[in-house]
Amino acid sequence: MSKPLPSHARVVIIGGGIHGCSVAYHLAREGWTDVVLLERKQLTSGTTWHAAGLVGQLQGSHATTAFAKYGIELLQEIEAETGQNPGYRRSGSISIAINEERLAELKRKADFASLFGIEAQYLAAPEIAERWPLMNPDGVLGGIYMPSDGSANPIDLTTALAKGARTHGAKIFEHVKVEAVEVEGGRARAVRTAEGRITADVVVNCGGMWARELGRQNGVGVPLHACEHYYLVTEPIADLPSDLPVLRSYCDGTYWKEDAGKLLFGFAHFHPKAWGTDGISEDFCFDSLPFVEEDVMDVLELAMNRVPVLQNVGIRTFFNGPESYSHDGRFTLGEAPDIKGYYVLAGVNSTGIQSGPGAGRALAQWIMKGHPPMDLSEMDPKRCEEFQTRDPYLRERCAETLVLTYAMHWPGRQRESVRNLRRTPFYHAMKAHGACYAELQGWERPGWFAPEGVTPEYDYSFGRPSWFPHAQAEQKAAREAVAMFDYSMLGKLMVEGKDAEAFLQRVCTNDMALPMGRVAYTLMLNERGGIESDVTVARHADDAFMVMSSISHTRRDYLHLRDALRPDEDVRLRDATTAYGVLAIAGPKSRDLLAAVSDADLSNAAFPFNSLRHFHIGHAPVFAQRLSYTGELGWEIFVTPDFAEHVFDVLMAAGAPLGLRLAGGEALNALRIEKGFLHWGHDMAYSDAPHQVGLGFVCKPDKGTAFVGRDAYLERKAANEGPYLCFVKLTDPTPLLHHNEPVLRDGKVVGYVTAGAWSCAQEAAVGLCLLSAPDGATGKKTLTHGRYSVMIEGREFMAEVSLVPFHDPASERMLA
Asked: What family classification does the UniProt entry report for this protein (predicted)?
């Protein structure tokens, strides 16, 4: 290090790969010049330097696609600003399919591209062979061509970002290892190195595969692990076209790109290996790992069949390098949940070069604005439970993420590694009745129930999988008789203390001055009027409330409540999720079932909707909330784990003559979509306002206490801008809706499906969708005109769009 470290910086960034340099560049470009970047060795020396450099715009989500699209824009502009050529070549890309399922997936990806104005064309096999003459077309059914894709030089791109950051005033120091991030009073205060200490207002962990260990020092969970990742480079190939598009054959597990007269081809991995399980060497710098031929031989054989020239040309480079993968295939991007001013950007699953510029810009904007610039909830560090950030879990889960990178991206695909961690009190009883389990946040949750003689095992399809009729029968039971669901894994957060009501009045939009035994559905907003969460709140005592959260957001909701507490408030929070098993019964005969097993007065007058009562089922003390996520008459029954199986047995016996059927998450999802009930993270997030998604009815701006975000809520409501949540149903009963299908009005893309399912009652696919109003118009009512259709696998299907749910819009059944 030739120059001394400053004693203070506004922002200190740890890590000099593509992400750290991107954050520094975007901060400095916006005028935050007091920025220091520290790199333990040399810029790009960890993972960035050996990346393949592919830059494809279309990614797996709205946020990551926006990152990649911006990345292309920056690649086209940054040389003019910095004088550094990032090595960008717009060669296009072709993804091929060798079976009908993969072709369907590629067509759905092309549909998704239309939401962003990204050009994607279907090509038949002969057209692909013409553009990629080295390819063996045997078995190729077709593919998708994206002309704006290409490749960049990872080192040159990172150098350009670093040069731009320096030009705008940021300081970059190499060969400076961060020993610790100092935290005081719940806030990052300084970074300590062997060369000195730098106090800071903000610290950013862009440590790549070191980010997990660095975060762990301060209790910050970064769910990633390095895995071995291979690519090969051939000897020069005579007359190899320099303008070859990038070619991806997901089924063969391989991608190819032209590389200075040679072919570089990389691998998906059928036999992944976590790397660095005993730690990463202190000397690691521009290093590679041993190449084990057996690890890639099966993929290599597929590659030589798909591109036969490989059989006759030598291999110049056999390369194996570490890449970071996350436990769920998503980035970690955002502020750490327990330390203010500590931000993380890491775990990007081999998409660093194409996503790095956009991800770095997004994090820089978050730091500058104090809040996310767009919906980044899928990447939130708060999504992780403690066990999901430990090495034993990550070694297995992150390696599976690598395997799934090129696998089929089926709707509802279940992970196979690290299962059976968290089981509800009804797990064994339901398994004995044929439960096929799905997994979420470590919880085993029934997805559907197999009848006798059917193996309870998931298979997948964009159409109707083998278990489709069983989930339909579960829907039918809920609509016509009675169905029972396991809700035990839903979050149960107790808010207790003499100031509990006042606290909840401030953080919740609905009126929390509830009488004893009453329940309310409510939102929690941020200061910008966006929806931070939706929960139900039940009053159990003068000083005790239970807040119920969705499975995947329990920790996030807990942290949101915790962070909203004021020092002078007498309020205690505790997570009581595992204190109760919960069985939900739903359907027109649910009152009959509950009456058969208890002596409770279940009349509307005595047990109205949004209330709770204590009574007994069999010999077990229970309490039940009259609520519904299905749109049917129903109750949620809470029982302590010791009595759980007894209550289950009593209900099953009493329900047999009523047509009781056990039901799982697949049926529940369809039922709630048909009824128009929302799920935070799918149909709304913290960037959406209540008026957009039809939830203004639970916002009470005139209650005695001004709730967080009230003024912003009123401003956004008055402006009445979209997009708006609506309900969509296909007129053709054959195709299915899953997620992200484009919705068209008069042939123009105006929105997308946020969640879809096939409804037994409607005998058609139904969905929730976010739609933009016609140009220059505001208000949801402007959406009622026009001809609607939905794009599915390259075909338009006529659709009905409604401003009210398709099932029981007046809620007469639910309130019966």
From this structure: Belongs to the GcvT family.
pLDDT at 1 over 70: no
Q: How far apart are CA 413 and CA 404, in angstroms?
A: 10
Q: Which two tokens stand for residue 816?
A: 């019966």
- 635 sits in which H/E element: strand 634-639
Q: Is 5 helix (H, G, I), strand (E, B) or coil?
A: coil
Separation of alpha carbons 750 and 756, rounded Å: 17
Confidence tier at 62 by pLDDT (50, 70, 90): very high
Is the pLDDT score of 295 beyond 90?
A: no
CA-nearest of 813, 535, 548, 554 to 695 is 535
At 614, is the secondary structure helix, strand, or coil?
A: strand
Domains and CATH numbers, the chain: 8-86+152-224+328-383 (3.50.50.60), 93-149+226-321 (3.30.9.10), 491-579 (3.30.70.1400), 720-802 (2.40.30.110)
Rounded Cα gap, residues 413 and 403, in angstroms: 13
* 379 φ/ψ angles, rounded to the nearest 5 degrees: -100, 0
Task: State phi, psi for 716 to the nearest 5 degrees.
Answer: -70, -35
The structure tokens listed for 444 are 């085993």
List CB contacts of 733: < 8 A, sequence separation 6 or more.
763, 764, 765
The DSSP call for residue 22 is H
Angstrom distance (rounded) from CA 263 to CA 267: 13
Torsion sign, CA atoms 641, 647, 652, 658: negative
* CA–CA dist 76, 69 (Å, integer): 11
Q: How many CB atoms lie within 10 A of CB 588?
A: 17
**H or E segment and range at residue 563:** helix 554-564
Q: Higher model confidence: residue 297 or residue 39?
A: 39
> DSSP string covering 219-263, please?
T----EEEEEEEEEEESP-TT--TTPPEEEETTTTEEEEEETTEE
- Structure confidence by residue, pLDDT tens digits, 742-790: 999 999 999 999 999 999 999 999 999 999 999 888 899 999 999 999 9
Round to the nearest angstrom and report the end-to-end CA distance of the chain. Answer: 75
> How many Å apart are CA 739 and CA 733, to the nearest integer?
17
Q: What is the pLDDT of residue 335?
A: 98
With DSSP H G I counted as helix, E B as strand and the rest as coil, what are the percentages for the chain, rounded to 5? Answer: 30, 30, 40
Residue 2 is predicted with a pLDDT of 66
Amino acid identity for residue 286 in this structure: F
- Angstrom distance (rounded) from CA 432 to CA 649: 12
Distance set, CA 149 to CA 88, 130, 244, 517 (Å): 10, 18, 12, 58
Give the Å distances, CA to CA, from 146 to 257, 260, 410: 14, 22, 22
pLDDT tens, position by position, 435-445: 999 999 999 99
Q: What is the pTM of this model?
A: 0.96
- pLDDT for position 307: 95
- Angle, to 10 degrees, between the axis of helix 62-82 and the axis of helix 154-167? 70
Give tens-digit pLDDT for 71-86.
999 999 999 999 999 9
Q: Cis (ω within 30 of 0) for the bond into 126?
A: no
User: Which candidate, 588, 662, 597, 660, places its Cα nearest to that of 628?
Assistant: 588
